[in-house]
Amino acid sequence: MNFARETLDQCFEDALPLFRPHYEEVSWDKGHIPLEINFKAYLQIEQLGHLVCFTARENGVLVGYTMWLVDYPLEYASTQHAIANTVYMDPAHRNGSGIRLLQFAESELRDMGVRVLSLDVKRINDWGRIAGSLGYEATDTKYQKYIGGLHE
């Protein structure tokens, strides 16, 4: 398994086959909120230096990815944070490879000057125990509510 930091141009097309199974596994309200990847917005955020992608490849085939939003929060202007926008490993490769991908990303982000990492762990696919074993602490509880719109 090879881990790397890649640009969206390097990995996005290869990631397309993984987006649907990722969505099916972790999305909260599939009946109202369809999968619609806003590639243009991802590119813009990356070009601003606020999106970093890390990949896992087996024999050149993309089998996992994690994308992080990197910035200085308004409340903590001197401490760079990174928030995992997404973390996914193909189920056939979850023999510790996801943990190694996160560890690789953590090392790279630390080298970039990031000091605080944040992960969202979905209740539908709770891997909080794994996050805890990597030193993450449960600090928040997030609530969501669908209030209507285009996809009703």
List the secondary-structure elements in sequence, H or E.
Answer: EHHEEEHEH
Summarize the amount of helix as a percent range.
25-40%
Low-confidence stretches: none
- Return Rg in Å: 16 Å
What's the CATH H-level homologous superfamily?
A: Gcn5-related N-acetyltransferase (GNAT)
Structural summary, described in words:
With 152 residues, the chain is α+β, with helices and mostly antiparallel strands. The model has no long low-confidence stretch (mean pLDDT 92). Helix content is 32%, strand content 24%. It has helices at residues 8-26, 39-47, 97-111, 128-133, and strands at residues 2-6, 51-58, 61-71, 81-89, 116-118. The protein has one domain (2-133): Aminopeptidase (3-Layer(aba) Sandwich). A 5-stranded mixed β-sheet has the order 1-2-3-4-5, sandwiched between helices. 16% of the residues are buried.
